[in-house]
Amino acid sequence: MRIIVDGFGGDNAPGEILLGCARAMDELGIDISVAGDKDKLLSSARELGIEDKFSKMEVLHCTDVLTMEDEPESVLKAKSGSSMAVGMQALRDGKGDAFASAGNSGALAMGATMIVKRVKGVKRIAFAPVLPTTKTPFMISDGGANVVCRPEMLVQFGIMGSVYMEKVMGVKSPRVGLVNVGTEEHKGDDLRREAFALLKECGGINFIGNIEPRDIPYGVCDVAVADGFTGNMVLKLYEGTALAMMGMVKDIFKKSVKNKLAAAMIYGDLQGLKKTMDYNSYGGAPLIGAAKPVFKMHGNAKAYAVQSALRLVRDCTQSGYVEAITAKLAEKD
Amino acid sequence: MRIIVDGFGGDNAPGEILLGCARAMDELGIDISVAGDKDKLLSSARELGIEDKFSKMEVLHCTDVLTMEDEPESVLKAKSGSSMAVGMQALRDGKGDAFASAGNSGALAMGATMIVKRVKGVKRIAFAPVLPTTKTPFMISDGGANVVCRPEMLVQFGIMGSVYMEKVMGVKSPRVGLVNVGTEEHKGDDLRREAFALLKECGGINFIGNIEPRDIPYGVCDVAVADGFTGNMVLKLYEGTALAMMGMVKDIFKKSVKNKLAAAMIYGDLQGLKKTMDYNSYGGAPLIGAAKPVFKMHGNAKAYAVQSALRLVRDCTQSGYVEAITAKLAEKD
Question: pLDDT value at position B280?
């Protein structure tokens, strides 16, 4: 399997990206193509002492870079020669099996839609991160690609998310819930009420009705369906609150010698908790609905997170989730 | 000061409500009127052994009860004889200085609007809980009273929230932020972009621009402005995630004898953290924009939370926040 990686996406490019790729080649037995300026990549590889690994990567040479400030549309025109755009063009042309970038999310969704294209029948591509809970992990679909949505888009987010959780995460009959202000059927705005009615009728998925955000951390569902605005709120507040709480616990443990001793006694268990709630160990998230596997890595991903993300990309791509989504939507047609 | 309390609102009414009222009379030196069935209240007071305290409360006798299943509108018609409606009618008629209920939020907002009425110029009453963060507490305005909003409503939520945080919480020049998917000005949907423009121009408040949910737990703002759908998401996910994390830490401490020992060593500090993040110690939340002080208590409030809520109601009412909101909106007129 060959994974194409955007060498110049994210806060820590290209160094940490290259390092993560090098480690992933070793661990996962995958081939890597990296899009970006050949000279800059080489000198970065030299600095890191991974020249030998780098020599085994294919370089898709291009000198332009798409930044966080660029408009999403720029990936198609002004920045069509950027590492992100070139990577997706290569994926489209069959020069690799999947694409991953830690760059501008909006541009990535735009490129996935217009360069890689969508699975037949897909209205909108969704950004679909899988996050930990106290019990089982869950997916947010859509986690932020589509700020404004129609009800039928939410239904597709639910269907695609369900297929992904079954294929990739091995969940039998994933519980699909609609994120809402209350559990009763009539709750929420028009978008929620119409989406509820459509999800209830749609068949082929295990729709469990409305779910309230307070139950999400306890694993109330496998797929949390939301418009991209709401999904992005859930994603960012969930991550932020978990991190803040971990930080407060950490502060307690550093407060005194006695507390440090207590911390040492339960160090292993605390690390376990940290790992459970650490989204970096999940590494990345798919853009479901794209005709080929496209993944977003965390913007501040370092080598470890890049390596985790590439493991996810490999496992997902092998699972055949794109084909499964294609088949499921063809059924619905 | 006389606070009117809905004796039959919430999961633990009337027992825990009465108990909380009795304790609050002792602690706070306030008078209490309680709305509800006189006989049932008396027999509950007897069971709890607080007959003497109960004899000092004024009872607004009524036999009907508004339930969680009732439509909000019922507070005006079918259930206009319920304890919630009777309590608000008494407030309107000057038979008390503030009203508090742990009952149906939608009905409470409806009653505040139609029975107690709004401050002149207020478009919508907002449910405005104040929550803890790792640094300073913040208010969500609106936390769920208005699922669908226009941009100018969000502006008023910001103004009213700002006045409240200054008057009640003593915050100088409260930082008012718009909850959004990114910090840049152009982010979000039409509602967010239009509200941003209006907030920026409005003057008289310290508008700090868009805020991202991931920064909320770190005290990025004093007032988080949102439509009621988004605000309710933030409220419920924030509470749920904090509780889930506390639960996971607790589980670690119960895992083994060694861990229990470690927990004992830092017991005091852990209790401090729990208290910091415990919304029950905040007790209740105002419905800002109502012409007189109306408060929502947590639906599952027990005596301790009722007592905390009544402390908040007293402090708020004394602060003159309603008059301050009235003056501020008159300026804007």
Answer: 59
Contact status of A252 with chain B (Cβ, < 8 Å)? yes
Contacts of B133 in chain A (CB under 8 A): 244
Instruction: List the Cα angle B258/B260/B261 in 5-degree steps.
Output: 65
B237/A216 touch (CB, cutoff 8 Å), yes or no: yes
Encode B238-249: b = buried (16+ Cβ within 10 Å), e = exposed: bbbbbbbbbebb
Q: Which positions 20-59 of A are in contact with B (Cβ < 8 Å)? A: none
Contact B266 A262 (CB under 8 A): yes
* CA–CA gap between residue B75 and residue B80 (Å, rounded): 5
- B236 → chain A, closest CA residue: A214
Encode pLDDT of B258-285 as tens digits.
888 888 888 888 887 777 766 655 678 9
CA distance B138 to B157: 14
Q: Across-strand partners of B175?
A: B206
What backbone phi and psi angles, to 5 degrees, belong to B154?
-60, -35
Q: pLDDT tens for residues B112-148? A: 999 999 999 999 999 999 999 989 999 999 999 999 9
Q: Which residues of A148-184 are buried (b: 16+ CB within 10 A; e: fewer)?
A: ebebebbbbbbbbbbbbbbbbbebeebbbbbbbbbee
Q: A230–B232: do the CB atoms touch at under 8 Å?
A: no
Mutate to test the interface with A, among B181, B191, B243 (most CBs of A within 10 A): B181
Q: Is A328 helix (H, G, I), strand (E, B) or coil?
A: helix
The pLDDT confidence band at residue B297, using thresholds 50, 70 and 90, is very high
pLDDT by residue (tens digit) across A29-40?
999 999 999 999
Percent of chain A with pLDDT over 70: 98
Residues 6 or more apart whose CB falls under 8 angstroms from that of A209 comprise: A177, A178, A183, A185, A196, A200
3-state SS assignment for residue B27: helix
- Element at B32 (helix H, strand E): strand B31-36
Which H or E run contains B140? strand B138-141
ipTM of the complex: 0.91
